Recover the amino acids of this structure.
């Protein structure tokens, strides 16, 4: 068929091609839309890396978007995945069975660990560390996140009383990685260990509260500010985490000890659960009409799919630039669109602020854990007394 059209155009002229005028009129628009989509869809990770025998802890894998795409690719490359989920139930069990089937990899496991619950995070990390010799760990891929409707003035609280976005996006991930520091340091010096943490461009509008990093005393009048600040504060703490992992890291065998790297990944604007909630403000009616019907053509044109967004995460996992032998400095790398980018906020250049934020957050979480432990013990005593 295309050859017939081409032959007609050459021999008899383009006017003999059926609907030529319509085609000619529409061609510039089609070409323009195609060019825009090729630009906005994002890059593809070009690095291939077999992950057979490697063990990763993954959060946010059940999103059916970026998280699932990343987990599937890692599983297909042979990685053993320990996927943290809020609850192990019928849905997550079916989900992981489907993932195993698609990846042809049975080494995918679910572990209950609600990141909004600091006690559950500590239980998981303690169980992981309570093993001799130290368990193999090739990295953590932290992709879980929570975004609340921006026009909702109702503050949702975690089990510990923290604002839910701050609990999941910042406190939970910070606590997990902070507790797992001994596991990272216990890995052999020739093991390439990568901590990959996703962030968001909305961090640009976030704030840092050095004296109240968990935002317990902050007024809940702008939900989006809590989301943006949680991402900003986590990113800043990751720079301090890298310094702590690198400090006194030189080994007796002459290696640098810089085999554990932290990378921040900005996946771009995706057609994700967070974007749907942002546009619909949590309304099912708005989701069906505004997102799925009215705006979807524009969103398809100007945003990435979850698969494309996950390519930057895979790049951070697989690029040889982060191998110890290729490291040129000790700085945390910022990956955007499958390439190394630079930080825009001035706080990313303030090591003193990052250290203070890290130390204060660790202290505040410990204080909160102690107070919650007292409440749990008091509740158990009351329940036991009532049962007598």
């Amino acid at each position: 068929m295309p050859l017939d059209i081409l032959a007609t155009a050459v021999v008899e002229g383009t006017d003999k091609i059926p609907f030529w005028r319509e085609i000619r009129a529409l061609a510039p628009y089609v070409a323009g839309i195609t060019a825009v989509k090729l630009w906005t869809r994002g890059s593809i990770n070009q690095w291939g890396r077999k992950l057979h025998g490697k063990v990763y802890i993954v959060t946010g894998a059940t999103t059916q978007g970026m998280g699932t795409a990343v987990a599937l690719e890692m599983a297909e490359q042979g990685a053993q995945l320990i996927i943290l989920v809020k609850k192990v139930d019928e849905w997550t069990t079916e989900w992981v069975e489907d993932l195993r089937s698609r990846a042809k990899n049975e080494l995918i496991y679910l572990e209950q660990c609600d990141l909004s619950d600091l006690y559950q995070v500590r239980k998981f990390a303690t169980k992981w560390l309570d093993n001799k010799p130290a368990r193999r760990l090739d990295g953590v891929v932290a992709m879980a996140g929570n975004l609340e409707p921006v026009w909702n003035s109702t503050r949702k609280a975690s089990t510990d009383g923290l604002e839910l976005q701050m609990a999941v996006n910042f406190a939970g991930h910070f606590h997990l990685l902070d507790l797992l520091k001994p596991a990272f340091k216990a890995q052999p010096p020739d093991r390439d260990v990568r901590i990959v943490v996703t962030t968001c461009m909305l961090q640009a509008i976030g704030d840092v509260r050095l004296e109240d990093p968990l935002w317990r005393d902050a007024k809940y009048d702008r939900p989006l500010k809590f989301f943006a600040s949680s991402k900003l504060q986590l990113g800043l703490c990751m720079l301090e985490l890298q310094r702590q992992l690198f400090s006194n890291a030189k080994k007796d065998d002459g290696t640098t000890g810089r085999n554990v790297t932290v990378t921040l990944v900005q996946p771009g604007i995706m057609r994700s659960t967070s974007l749907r909630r942002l546009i619909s403000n949590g309304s099912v009616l708005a989701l069906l009409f505004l997102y799925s019907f009215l705006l979807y053509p524009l969103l398809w044109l100007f945003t990435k799919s979850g698969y494309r967004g996950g390519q930057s995460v895979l790049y951070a996992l697989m690029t040889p630039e982060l191998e110890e032998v290729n490291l040129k400095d000790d700085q945390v790398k910022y990956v955007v669109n499958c390439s190394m980018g630079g930080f825009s906020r001035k706080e990313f250049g303030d090591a003193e602020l990052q250290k203070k934020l890290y130390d204060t957050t660790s202290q505040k979480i410990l204080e909160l854990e102690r107070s919650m432990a007292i409440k749990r013990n008091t509740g158990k005593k009351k329940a036991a007394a009532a049962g007598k």
